[in-house]
Automatic annotation (TrEMBL):
This is AI-2E family transporter. Its main location: membrane. It comes from Streptosporangium jomthongense. It is found in: Cell membrane. The keyword Cytoplasm does not apply.
Length: 384
């Protein structure tokens, strides 16, 4: 038979509700321990305003606590950064000795011994003249007092306002002794803090210099393996630039100190070696260090005679031009590649943030940022 001749099939008869309920699978009833005797739970607290405000407040308190911890440990952080900077700067000298088949420990001992010797010579050159000048000033104080007492103007003022009487009361009542004792305690604290910071800096520099290769390898292992080779190349170039900058800056300071010492010795200037060391140390400060050293030496020369003062002023004026246009470009051309305007801006920002330490670190940091922009950012922007 064809499909058209087949009779239509009858639809199934509807079942009663009781039969439909019986045909459904049985659902187990909730056990009493999973029942909700206190009603239906409310909305989750993830969008609760109170919880959002509490979380935000805790985040602000955490950020404030971290900021306070950084501010409190600022001096320690500065010491660590400067020690690492000095270790990176001294590392080229260590590697140069290693290339001559010297063990790294021996090379570190020689380089670090040279650093300690410089500080010892600096102290021996500075401390005795300062001590002699202070002793001569103390011995000359009674003569200054007698000259003041012999002045008729001072005697007239004393008769009107009893100045000498008040000074005597201040001395005899112990006010002067308390002031002097407080000043001595404060000066002693400053000297002790400076000595402790210098000693800590030397120890940290020695440790960083000894473990610098392992520190570099550990930091490079934190980079993904696909980018590790390029990161190592960029990092080595940055460290070489920092080392070249430190070595070049030290060389420029040595040239300035030796030249100043020769000039002052020819003029028979008192304390020529101490003043030359002051010029060499001040010349380490970017931008203003050479000017500060020149002004200090010129003022000391003026106290000796006008002729010495004028001669020192003319000498430093000529020498700074030679250093800025001949010595500095030749020494620094292979260490840092930074535009002069960027150098000035970086030194100003570093000095404003961290003082002299910031000014010293600003130029190599600017060179590192310029290298990363030139090798990473600009090629990526060119591919977009």
């Amino acid at each position: 038979m064809s499909e058209a001749s087949q009779p239509p099939q009858a639809s199934p008869a509807p079942q009663p509700p009781q039969a439909a309920d019986a045909a459904r699978p049985a659902v187990p009833k909730a056990r009493p321990e999973f029942a909700e005797p206190y009603g239906k739970p409310g909305k989750p607290l993830t969008r609760n305003p109170f919880l959002i405000g509490l979380t935000g407040g805790l985040g602000i308190l955490t950020a404030w606590a971290l900021a306070q911890a950084l501010i409190t440990a600022r001096s320690v952080i500065v010491l660590v950064v400067v020690a690492m900077f000095l270790a990176v700067g001294l590392n080229p000298a260590v590697e140069a000795l290693q290339r001559r088949r010297m063990p790294r420990r021996g090379a570190i001992s020689i380089v670090f011994g040279g650093v300690i010797l410089f500080f010892v010579l600096f102290g021996l050159a500075i401390v005795p003249p300062v001590s002699r000048e202070a002793a001569s000033f103390v011995s000359a104080v009674p003569g200054y007092v007698r000259e003041l007492l012999a002045n008729p103007t001072l005697r007239a003022l004393d008769s009107d306002y009893q100045i000498l009487t008040r000074i005597g009361d201040y001395v005899t009542n112990g006010g002067l002794a308390q002031a002097v004792a407080g000043g001595l305690v404060g000066a002693g604290a400053v000297v002790f803090d400076t000595f402790f910071s210098g000693f800590t800096l030397l120890v940290l520099t020695l440790y960083f210099l000894g473990s610098l290769p392992s520190i570099k390898d550990y930091l490079f292992r934190l980079v993904p393996s696909s980018r590790r080779e390029r990161t190592r190349a960029l990092g080595d170039e940055i460290l070489d630039g920092i080392g070249g900058y430190v070595a070049g800056n030290l060389l420029i300071s040595v040239i300035a100190g030796v030249t100043t010492w020769v000039f002052l010795a020819v003029l028979n200037m008192p304390y020529a070696l101490a003043l030359a060391l002051v010029v060499a140390v001040a010349d380490l400060i970017p931008l203003v260090g050479a000017t500060i050293g020149a002004v200090l030496v010129t003022l000391v020369a003026l106290l000796q005679s006008w002729t010495l003062g004028v001669a020192c002023g003319v000498f430093f004026l000529i020498y700074q031009q030679i250093e800025n246009y001949l010595i500095y470009p030749r020494v620094m051309k292979r260490s840092v590649d930074v535009a002069p305007a960027v150098t000035v801006i970086a030194a100003l920002f570093g000095g404003a943030l961290m003082g002299i330490v910031g000014a010293l670190l600003a130029i190599p940091v600017a060179a590192a940022i310029a290298l990363i922009i030139r090798e990473v950012v600009l090629p990526r922007q060119a591919r977009l």
